[in-house]
Amino acid sequence: MQIHQNAEPSPADADITEIELGLVDIFLSLCRFEWQSGYQELATALFQAEIEFSLFCPSLLLSERSKIRLFEHFWNSDSPRVGEEGALGWSTWLEKEEENRLKIIKQETSHDDDKGGWTGWSEPVSKHKETDMNPEDVTENNMGVQELQEELEDEDINQEEDAEALLKQLGIDVDVGASSAVHDTSTWTRWSEVELSRDHSQWMPVHGKSDKASQDNGMPDGEADEQFLRVILFEDVSECLFSLSSEEARLSLVSQFIEFFGVEMSRWICTNSSRWTEKIFSLEVLPDSILQNLRRVHDILVKSQAISRSNSLEFLLDSIGDNSKRTAMMKFLRNAVLLCLAAFPHNYMLEEAALVAEELSITRTDSSTPSRALAKSLLKSDRQDVLLCGVYAQREAIYGNIGYARRVFDMALSSVEGLPVEFKSNASLLYFWYAQAELATGSASTEESSSRALHILCCLGSSMKYIPFKCKPSSVQLLKAHQGFKEKMKSVRLAWIRGVIDDSSVALTCSAALFEELTSGFIMGIQLLDEAFTMVLPERRSRSYNLEFLFYFYVRMLLRYPKDSSLSKIWESILQGLQIYPTSAELFNSLVETSHTYTTPNKMRLMFDDYCQRKPSVIVWLFALSFEISKGGSEHRIHGLFERALVNERLCKSVVLWRMYIAYEVNITCNPSAARRIFFRAIHACPWSKKLWLDGFQKLKSILTAKELSDLLEVMRDKELNLRTDVYEILLQD
């Protein structure tokens, strides 16, 4: 049995691929809804089931119905599922099950062959036993049973009375409705903290058999009940299973699964994609990439003015960011990605995700890279995977181990010549990553880093065999590299005209621009990139994540030379980019950085108002709000931005904007009454978000009464949000 391989041609045509991509997007929406409603275990199980069903299906000729019946056998077994320790994948598990079955049959057959011969006579067992009893004894026994039952009933009544007395001592009158059981808001605050803590830890489903074993092993009743509630049966996931035949759809499923659980992948979709839009729109917390851009905006704006940190954006970003590093979740994700690499071998984006998850799952006090052991293990299993070397070397450079990174890069590039053609075609990515790492490092002097980067780019441009850096390239080597890049760029342009745009060609274009920047000045590098963009129609540019990355590279090159570049060129380029990619956080960050230096705040406000009106999105409003709060703008202006965003028919469903608005009123304006009104509007607009409801318990404890908090809990139950904690648990702790 074989799992789906990356090299297999997809049998689906373009229309079927689009349908399957749409199915994956709908599936992701369902998982987000379940997760945000508090059913984290179900969302996790849905991902596990669909990945096993689509990526690791046995290569048997089965109907869809038979396939589901076979999968039910796997799901109901105690075998580890994707992401769990020891998981093998459905296909491999079935192989081993078949091997074990055949082995048992063989053993039984050989055991039966050893038997034989006459075993002698045996006395038949009597069908009836003498069980006659004295009728008087039976009557006495019946009377004894009745007396025992009466005693047990009296004991139950006494226990009920004792329980009622105990509850009254706790201040709980069982004869009164549940809404009046808690009179102290601090109890509800503690309840919300416990509830959040359990949401944080109880996201992993429990196997049915392991739950039964835990009860047999004498686990306390409370813990056993929690385990039982976390069991996800096959019936819970069976209706959501669907097969995927196209490579793109299966990779989309895995990529969105990785980002769902908190590891951001290298750019794999364009910000104009509906998948990106839906992801941003459905956020409850902001991902690190957006948080970093917002914090960069804040740092730029506060440098030139004395703004109190109390008005800082940090209050809001901390309240809507996910600061928790879930070690167990990162281990789960690492295991899942490593298993998925069997279905997508040599996919450097998945390999990078596995290394990042490994880093987030380990706490290190020394300077070593946390993912070093995993990277070495992966490289031992496949020494031809040079892109994995490049990904690993970049991680070393990020952690400041540039010497280690250089050794890995040098080893990978030195071995490229002896590799098959399919591996050689990705060499430009390695060269580009290496050159970027050298230029970004601060451990060496700028001149040495530039010389090293120039040597790397010379080897790529001249197509000479790579040798580690010894000295600055000679003028002859530079000339050969210059001519080589010219020829290579001609081939790239021809390929782009035909619509063939991939990672390697974009990396080669960036490398050629870097070479021109280092040898002839950045103007020549910009000119080369401008020529490359002319080879692609605007419509294709707006859909390609590769070309979006290239445009970011273009803007960053301009921003590196603010004094030498004309303001009009920088400004025009950023505005052009926002026309093509109107929801790009990186371009809005560049816009604020440029406008802060060259334009007035009022002009920037007018621009944000224009974007908010013409192309409203969560990203636009986040940057508009960040600009005002960081600049110390008026409360009237900030309130106006929030209100304009949340009266939008679509944006009023954005949980992250509501949470930011509540946090602004609580932490910055210190107006809990206004925050209370906003909170009630928020839960009316987004009733599925459990995190939003719990914000009321935690942030509005000073303004909401115990009765209101109790009523909120009842409404949460009515909305069928998953509540893990009974308030009586909190009361019994006192």
UniProtKB/TrEMBL annotation:
GO terms for cellular component: catalytic step 2 spliceosome. Residues 107-116 have a biased composition (Basic and acidic residues). It is found in: Nucleus. Signal peptide: none annotated. InterPro entries: HAT (IPR003107), NRDE-2 (IPR013633), TPR-like_helical_dom_sf (IPR011990). The keyword Cytoplasm does not apply. The keyword Nucleus applies. Keywords: Nucleus. It comes from the Eukaryota. One of its GO terms (biological process) is RNA processing. Pfam families: NRDE-2. Residues 107-140 are annotated as: Disordered. Belongs to the NRDE2 family. This is Protein NRDE2 homolog. It comes from Rhizophora mucronata (Asiatic mangrove).
